[in-house]
Amino acid sequence: MSIATARIAWPILFALTVFVAPSPAGDPTVATTAPAQSTAAPRPATLELMAQVQNNLRGIDSLEADFDQEKNLAVFKHKLNLSGRFALKQPNWVIWIVDKPVRYAIRVEGDEVRQWEEDTNKVQVTHVAGDPTFKAISEQLQAWFLGNYKALEASYAVFVLSDKPSPLSLRFVPKAGTMIAKLIAHIDLTFSPDNRTIEKMIIQEAGGDWTTLTIRNARINQPMKPQTWEIPPR
Amino acid sequence: MSVSGGDRGSRAIWMGVGILALALSVGGWFRLRIDSSLEPLLPENSDARQTVLFLRDSSFASKIVLWFRLRGDGDVSELYAAADEAEKHLDPKLIKRVIHPPRDAAAVDQVFGLLDDAGELLNASDLSEVEKATAPDALRKRMRECYMQLLRPEGSFMQRILRKDPLGVTSRILSRLYALSKGMGYRVEVKNGRFVHRDGRQMMLLLETNATATSVADSKQLVASLRRISESAPAGVEITPICAQIHTEENQRVMERDIRWMGFVNGIVFLLLFLAVSRDWRVGTIFLLPLVCISMTLGLCALVHPTLSLIVIGVSITMAGSAVDYGIFVYTVVSTSKDRKADLRRIRRPLLISHLTTLGVVLAFVFSAIPAYRQLGWLTSVSLVVSLLAALFVLPKLIRTDGKILLLGSGMPLKRWGRIMVPMTFVGAMLLIVMIVLARKTNFNADIGRLDGISPSVRAAEVDFQKTWGRSDGELGMLVVTGKTRAQAEEANEKINNLMAGHFAEGDWVSLSDFWPSPATRRANLLRWRRFWSPDRIAALRRDLAAAGEPYGFSAEAFEPFFQILAQPPREDQSREIVSAVEDQFIARSGDRFQMLNYFPDTAQTMATVRDLAAGHPEAQIVSRRALSDAFARSARSETRLLVGVSAAFIILFLLALTRSVVKSVIIMLPAIVGLLAMLAVLSAMGLSMNVVTVVAAIVVLALTSDYGVFAVYAWENREPLFGQGMASVHLCALTTAAGTIALLFARHPALFLVGVSLSSGLVAGYLSALFVIPGILWLLDQTKWGKTA
Predict the structure, then answer these.
(1) What CA dihedral angle connects A141, A144, A147 and A151, to 10 degrees?
(2) CA-nearest residue of chain A to B580?
(3) Which residues pair with A117 in a beta bridge?
(4) Any idea what DSSP says for residue B366?
(5) Please, which residues bridge with residue A158 across strands?
(6) Whole-prediction pTM value?
(7) What span, in angstroms and rounded, lies between the C-alpha atoms of B110 and B283?
(8) Do the chains contact at A6 and B465, CB–CB below 8 Å?
(9) ipTM of the predicted structure?
């Protein structure tokens, strides 16, 4: 017996598969405490609709935008409000910069991860292989914003919250019995009027916490300045 | 013809002895048990033996992989469907179970649940870190860290950990768990209860089999079953099995093909020889003689030692084949004899010399540390003695005296031939120097992988597999720690793990003990943890934590989950679930014993470190490709020294005793010396190395070519022509042997090819030296005063 072939490991990763894994869907009407997207009862998204969403996002090579984030976490006495900007570029570039309340930035470029924070003013370089959390984050941001809804469909059941009148609003419910279902109840997305980008994302956690992400000034396939990817950010 | 009473009595005794030996041999065959395992080939009390026995017996070695790859633009669901379909078609007689990773959802609870068992899993050093972390300054710093962490994109999902670990120490348990998977050398992600590659286009199904790789029959069955699954893969998916049994099956298949080819070539050559040299069907008895003798010997040996190695039987048949030389020598004498008795008496001495030089070589095996070599030594020695007796006393009765052998008795006198060959002697001397130079460059390669006869496609698939799934190109070695019970194995492993601590770069030493201590240590940890967290300390921490968290807005209940852990008793069952999920990689069984497996990079440096640190711990055993190669190399070197030393001593002793001349002894051994040097030189020139196979080949060259020297000197002394009885025996012996060995040059199996190269070069060089150089030297010697007196 070759030692190498017998030695197959499986990583038990506590944070890796936060966003992955299919199977039967959970309940889309489960009570949430996050700001409501729609009062209408969710209905399953048709394949045609998902194909249309995918088609709208096809051809997005890069995205640059500002964001406001509101986190309602049990650990804090009050809601946490953040603002900043982010950029994504095919095939695997992601930068996420928080400007307020403190300055922080992370860039994932292929296998390399660079992090910077105001307190220390040091750039920490690691690799995706060293912490799969970064890989999961990078992949998921790419999947949601650059449009790989086919892959997401395998991990989530998709419901329509609103499509008349525009904008389109979808709910992604992790399939039951999976690791992600243990962490997230659902993710609601509201698209821009032209359905080319996400305007709002609400992540409702299984434990009751929630996070809203509001996207502003989205610039699709626009030429990017080299400074966009600088760490520390300007 | 009248027969005297003494002759009749002698014949009756010989017949009686023969019939008795035959009867005993037949009885022995009923007792004979064939051992097809590798075990007898492993040196006793050696690392190599321990390693191979581990791979044979341990449950660790029963894992096989089915590797699924998407061919086109399909998605992962096609892989899953193909894997599910393959799983349905697994043969339950061959596949014990399919190893699935823990279900995703369960893993979350189990992994987070580990934090609740911090008391059991954190050691004294961790606790001193905890103490430092409870200082107010450290808490302020830590709260800032927690706050920053929660601002990050992944922050929300870190909350659960932060609430259970406000001090930032407990979560090192999770880091240790993660290090187990990270350090294992493979890039595997667990998705949907499957082992998936991060590119999402490949996955593997991990199986446990009943079929051992040391069994040819089991391996054939398993490989056939896996091939059926591969062939029935859907169009968009490729299924590649990766397992040791494929090596066994392919090696067997290639060897069988090569042996069939060799048999065919041998048959043709012998037929041609028969037609060209002597059209006497009874000549077949010469070639049957060694076979009959080894068969008899096998039966006789089985009376004493009923279990014999299959490989030994095969090799001993080959080595006993050198007894064909006796038959040829007797045949050439008898078939042309005018005075059979006198001629037979005349050839006894050279035959005895030939026999004793060969016997000296094979007897050396009796002193080996390898059981198979000892069996080989006894079997071949007894067989050679029986062959000699049969050649001298049985064969003459079967051969007609008026037989004709092509060219026999013709050719120029050897004296004249010797004079002509004087320049060749000097050319031979020059070539000998070249051979010595080349032979000195031959190195010993202990990598047994070079003797592996797998097909290029299997080799390429394994290389691809390693590139695809491996974290690095290097392989991992293992330190296996054994105990009678699981607790004993864990305790022993913990001690070894403590010895190794601090001697490796981060991530290079991977041990379950780093994450999961032995039961005794877990109990001691828990006791220490409980003593540490006195009510006063807990109250002080609550107060200080609230103060440190206030500037960041942490709520009063923010870290309540941590205080609940301190208040509640440990939940033993919860933690064990996650351990059982990883233990397939770290705990194995061998019979009723438990084995703890620790991993490290299989490099010379780490190997030396592990070897040094584990010295004096018989319960710890290194298992790695490098260790196995090293062990084989050490064994082969010591065996070579022993075999060469003992056989040289025997040969010198026998030759000096029989020839009573140092010069004659050296000349007799010249073909053997030239043969060995030529073999080494050719190996070196072809970029091949010495290994365990060529050591045995060298012994065969020594045994066969020494006969050429004996016969050539005999021919010279009897003033024969070039195709006289002695030299004709040399030509026939060389032709018949070369037919078999040259056929091996076309072998596909690397081990057989190596045997072919070694034997062909050695035997041809030995023959040429007997034909061209010995007559030249003897002529030169004759011209000297010393030569004339000698």
Answers:
(1) 100
(2) A12
(3) A104, A122
(4) G
(5) A172
(6) 0.70
(7) 79
(8) no
(9) 0.81
